[in-house]
Amino acid sequence: MLDKSSKVAGRVLLPDYVKPERYDLKVTPDLIAYTFDGLVSIKMTTKDSFSDEESNKITLHAKELMFRSAKFQTEDGKIVAADEIHVNMKATTVTFIFSDSIPQSSSITLVIDFVGCLNNQMAGFYRSHYTDKNGNDKIVASTQFEALDARRAFPCVDEPAAKATFLLTLVVPADLECMSNMPESKRVTVNDNKVEVSFLESPKMSSYLLAWCIGEFDYVQAQTASGVLIKVYAPRGKAASCQYALDCGVKALDSFNDFFGVNYPLPKLDMVAIPEFAAGAMENWGLITYRLVDMLIDPATASNSQKQRVCTVVCHEIAHQWFGNLVTMTWWDDLWLNEGFASWAENYAAHEAFPDYQMWEQFVVDHLSRALKLDGLLSSHPIQVPIHHAEEVEQVFDAISYCKGGSVVRMIKAVLGMENFRKGLGNYMKKYAYGNTETLDLWQAWEEVSGMPVSEMMASWTEQMGFPLLKVLKEDWQDDKVVLELEQSWFLADGSDTPDDGKDKLWTIPILTCTSAGTQEDMVLMREKTASVTIPLRSKDDWVKLNAGQEVPMRVQYSEEMLSRLSKAVRTKEMKSSADRVGLIIDAYALVKANQMMSPESLIRLLSGYKDEEDCVVWQGLSDVLGGLEMVLSEDEKIFVNYQDFARSLVLPLVEKVGWEAKKDDAHLTSILRGIMVSLLCTFCSDDISVKQEAKRRSEAFLEDPTNVSVLPTDIKVPVFQIFLKSGGEKEYDAVKAYYYKTNDNAERKTVLNSLGSAEDEKLKVATLDWTTSGEIKLQDFFYAIGSVSRSGKKGRVISWKYFQDHHQRLKEMLGNSNPSLMDAVIVMSAGSFCSLEKAEEITKFFKDHPYPKNERKIAQMTENMRANGKFLTILQASDLSKPEFWSSL
Ligand code: BES
Ligand code: ZN
Question: Which residues form the active site (predicted)?
Fold first, then answer.
């Protein structure tokens, strides 16, 4: 297990001989000149010994700020001015050098007068614009501080462990509203049109959680059972679209109150939709901010997948109010404590609120599968990832921290059982409230309630990257039981040889199994390389599935015998759990890709066993597998023709059943399933006359009259537009694009951006890319359109990659200063759809010649994945899939 001193070594931190206790911050923005004045008084305690060098110096974080003056006042009232102020742009710090030394073992108040820029980069204190319903340009000024941008708004110790309280005052135009983490405490008119608004002092918290926003808003409100007032704000005129997020918020807050046994600690909770926003949402304590599409739900038009997205985002951010805000990781290397736990908890609360969403079944495809996809690469990283310079953390807001993190939390819950799991969390919350923790503290909380070796078991999952492949070495089928000999080894996505330093990797694996009789009660913990397990059977020809419920982030390799029993259990629906049915097929796909472990022929045969499958979650997985094969096989026309027929034979019967038409009594997942099926039609059947006609009829009727929601329900809108555009020309393209300008619903605009790239004509694909960077599309949105071009097929990916190379300078100018996740998205959307070794080389070379230091990790992962897909193609080509007889034998 990691010891503390090696964890701490190498962290670049500010010196801790002065420690902020309270920030009293006043901000006066100029919403016309896009600047702001800042005045901060920081109450600091000082340590009892400083070095000589430190005795008259204070260094704080600061970025893109200018300083007018600084001074400190001692306890006895002496005022000492700063003689020199040094800004270090590279380290994003400012150092004040005073004319006299700082008193030791005491407290001082440091007062700094500074100026900043109200930027348009969606980071720090920034501005966003939108057009109101009368066509006027409106501004919202708001903040986004995580991970390292509080320092763009005021000088501070911008480290998660430097918790302090915050007293904020905003001086703003009197006709605008403003909110912060805490309720308003005082409002004074400064002159005719400005007010000075103060907020109550916050509890002790980390700087990245401070927030405020200023603008014109409408809101809806409700009280939770525990008496917390939740208000949900949107740009004026959209209050009705806030209701769903409010309902989710009320339910989630009450759920977490019960779950943690610690009440939500603040007097209120506001949630605000911000017109321009880099991420999906941000959990600022008491003031959660959202991208418009991730909070607003138009009750007349929203799709079920949009509702589910909003619900999970709301639940995720509310979970952070405890996990992250009340108790915070000490340093960014434990970011997963925030994001992994919230990724688990979003499903918990969404499931409590809407059991019919089947969040836990969906977890397997949404989280577990995404985690394993990334974690099979050599360019992955451990959940607990060393972070030296804080900026490195920006690259680990990824599927490892979120999805693998969430998956290991779900696994430990399966091992401990809900009661101990919950009790441990409750104790942890109480013990560390308003403080900081590291991963081990969480393990210990569970260890104490369960008496199980949690830290030992979990270290193998969070301290080493990668995950195990569990292989069945031997099997002995008897009348009433089967004895299995199991072996674990490190799974690599492309089947390459295990690097020498990885041969000894071991995980502590809970072995959970199921048979026709259901899930076995007994759980074995496998700690060694091999293990033997005995599983009771109902009969000699029963089936056995390992990793029951897909509770463990690993893959399983079966023998042909076991696989054929399992395949039958899928076909006959004897395997009842959709998590198990989908787990089986996504594992199989990954094993074929990793070459040694399963043949392409067996995969296709297994797939054909899903021909009567009707479950939405299983189809999410099937659609990943079918789509993945499509992408790779599109490079080989001969196989592709046969494969396409095969895919059609799987897809068409269910399309026939669910149809295109929404029905009044559709279940939540039925609507989502319809979206998946029409999207598969788009991939495999868009040349069918009847499909084209149906898409054309529906698109045209809708574009003619967008209030006619029933002719084109939102759950199928993107794929229907895609089919329409694919088979259409300029006229159809213009009609869809015109809708972007006609609607004032951002979710609908996103639909257009996600569709446009499907237009077949190359000129139109280029036109889409030109449009995105013309300045007309918000920075936060243009990766959607780039993705729609690159994923539109072979031509599309060539065009989007060329476009990126031709315009990378401009893209860098536009995005380089925003959150790096936006550039990540642009790079992956532009270049990520290839599947050949040559392209992987070409792309690697391009980024070597044109370095993107903040996106290096993403680029390495993208190209490694591409190489794996390139190898995959050769595996498929060398198999019987290239023989027509194989396909006709199915
Ligand atoms: N803390 C993050 C927001 C964030 C992300 C800040 C990256 C800085 C850098 C927030 O809690 C979050 O995880 N948001 C997700 C939504 C969630 C449902 C997965 C997002 O923005 O996509
Ligand atoms: Zn989060």
Answer: 317
Catalytic residues, by residue number, are 317
10 and 134 part of one domain: yes
- Compute, in angstroms, the gap from residue 337 CA to the centroid of ligand 2: 10
Q: Same domain, yes or no, for 454 and 495?
A: no
Cβ of 61 closer than 6 Å to ligand 1, yes or no, is no
Task: State how many domains the chain has.
Answer: 3
Is there a single domain that holds both residue 452 and residue 480? no
Q: What is the domain-level CATH number for residue 196? A: 2.60.40.1730
* 415 shares its domain with 503: no
Cα angle 582, 558, 506 (rounded to 5 degrees) comes to 95
Q: Is residue 863 lining ligand 1, measured as CB closer than 6 Å?
A: no
Q: What is the CATH number for 368?
A: 1.10.390.10
Express each pLDDT in 791-836 by its tens digit: 999 999 999 999 999 999 999 999 888 889 999 999 999 999 999 9
In angstroms, rounded to a whole number, what is the distance separating the alpha carbons of residues 327 and 432?
6
What is the per-residue pLDDT for 54?
80
Ligand 1 centroid from CA 570, angstroms: 37
State which of 154, 186, 213 marks the end of a domain.
213
With the most atoms of ligand 1 within 8 angstroms of its CB, the residue from 126, 146, 311, 821 to mutate is 146
Q: Which residue segment(s) compose the domain that 508 sits in?
A: 468-569
pLDDT over 90 (residue 604) = yes
What pLDDT is stored for residue 9 in this prediction?
80
Asked whether 658 lines ligand 1 (CB < 6 A), one says no
Residue 331, pLDDT score: 97
List, for residues 320-347, the tens digit of each pLDDT value: 999 999 999 999 999 999 999 999 999 9
- Of 144, 309, 316, 366, best ligand 1 pocket probe by most atoms within 8 Å of the beta carbon: 316
Which neighbouring-strand residues pair with 223? 229
Query: Which ligand lies nearest to the CA atom of residue 366 in the structure?
Result: 1
Residue 601, domain member (yes or no): no
Residue 41 falls within a domain, yes or no? yes
pLDDT score at 669: 97
Question: Which atom of ligand 1 is nearest the CA belonging to 339?
Answer: 13
Asked if residue 499 is part of any domain, the answer here is yes
CA 861 – CA 155 distance, rounded (Å):
35
In a shared domain, residues 500 and 451: no
Which pair of structure tokens corresponds to residue 320? 């952070």
Say if 112 falls within a structural domain.
yes
Looking at residue 119, what DSSP letter applies? B
**Averaged confidence pLDDT in the chain:** 95
Closest ligand 1 atom, residue 309 Cα: 18
Q: What is the pTM of this model?
A: 0.96
Compute, in angstroms, the gap from residue 342 CA to the centroid of ligand 2. 6
Tell how far CA 514 is from the center of its chain: 31
From ligand 2's centre to the CA of 765, what distance in Å?
34
Does 432 have pLDDT greater than 90? yes
DSSP 880: G
CA 166/CA 22 separation, integer angstroms: 6
Alpha-carbon distances of 608 from 232, 417, 560, 698, rounded to whole Å: 47, 36, 16, 31
